[in-house]
């Protein structure tokens, strides 16, 4: 198993946890939590695969990835007590997820012949559109569209840095780790410092 596969599977689990935690905030039952977890974990990657013509899409016949989603929902459902700093945990898991899915999405796209510029775009879609769909389903304003949230922007920055690092002598594995950490760090700093894009 390559590092990019480990990153993607970890991203699936982390995003599934994020989706299940979001379901808890809306007091959904375990079925609703499973739907939100699945959409959060697979939505972006599914849209990416459809856009670049991968058949079947990434989650079809992948029982291991599906088991990660089920496991994430069960873990969250078993932790019945109120989790301290709940919103912060959701934010951190989401930040880790977008970092992993950005790099994983870029790698998967480039494996299928997509050029660097569009691969970065596919990485951003992979990282953000699952959460976008889950937020729409739960009737909340998506983080992607919130004013004052550097969300897709941090994925774009990390993705550009990643494809630039691939042109250096640095190994792809080191580049992947650096860029995941970079995306998570920028996301957290932008939230703490309330950094935002200018209004149109």
Description:
By secondary structure, the protein is mostly helical. The protein has one domain. It contains 7 helices and no strands. The chain has helices at 3-25, 30-52, 63-78, 86-111, 116-137, 152-165, 172-192. The relative contact order is 0.15.
**Structural class from helices and strands?**
mainly alpha
Rounded to the nearest angstrom, the radius of gyration is 16 Å
The geometry reads as globular
Which H/E pattern describes the elements?
Answer: HHHHHHH
Distance between the termini: 45 Å
The total of beta strands comes to 0
Roughly what is the average pLDDT, rounded to an integer?
89
Summary keywords:
mainly alpha, 200 residues, 0% strand, 72% helix
Q: How would the blueprint of this fold be written?
A:
Elements: H1 3-25, H2 30-52, H3 63-78, H4 86-111, H5 116-137, H6 152-165, H7 172-192
Helix pairs in contact: 1-2, 1-3, 1-4, 2-3, 2-5, 4-5, 4-6, 4-7, 5-6, 6-7
Short characterization:
The protein is mainly alpha-helical.
């Amino acid at each position: 198993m390559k590092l990019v596969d480990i990153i993607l599977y970890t991203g699936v689990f982390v995003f599934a946890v994020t989706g299940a935690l979001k379901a808890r905030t809306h007091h959904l039952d375990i079925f609703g939590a499973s739907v939100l977890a699945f959409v959060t974990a697979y939505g972006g990657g599914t849209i990416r695969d459809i856009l670049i013509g991968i058949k079947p899409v990434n989650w079809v016949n992948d029982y291991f990835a599906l088991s990660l989603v089920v496991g994430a929902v069960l873990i969250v459902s078993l932790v019945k007590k109120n989790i301290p700093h709940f919103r912060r945990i959701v934010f951190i898991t989401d930040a880790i997820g977008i970092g992993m899915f950005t790099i994983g999405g870029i790698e998967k796209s480039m494996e299928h012949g997509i050029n660097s510029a569009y691969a970065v775009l596919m990485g951003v879609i992979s990282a953000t559109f699952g959460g976008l769909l889950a937020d729409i389903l739960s009737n909340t304003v998506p983080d992607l569209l919130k004013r004052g949230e550097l969300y897709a922007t941090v994925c774009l920055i990390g993705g550009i840095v990643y494809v630039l690092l691939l042109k250096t002598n640095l190994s792809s594995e080191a580049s992947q780790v650096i860029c995941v950490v970079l995306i998570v760090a920028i996301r957290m700093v932008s939230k703490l410092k309330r950094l935002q894009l200018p209004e149109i």
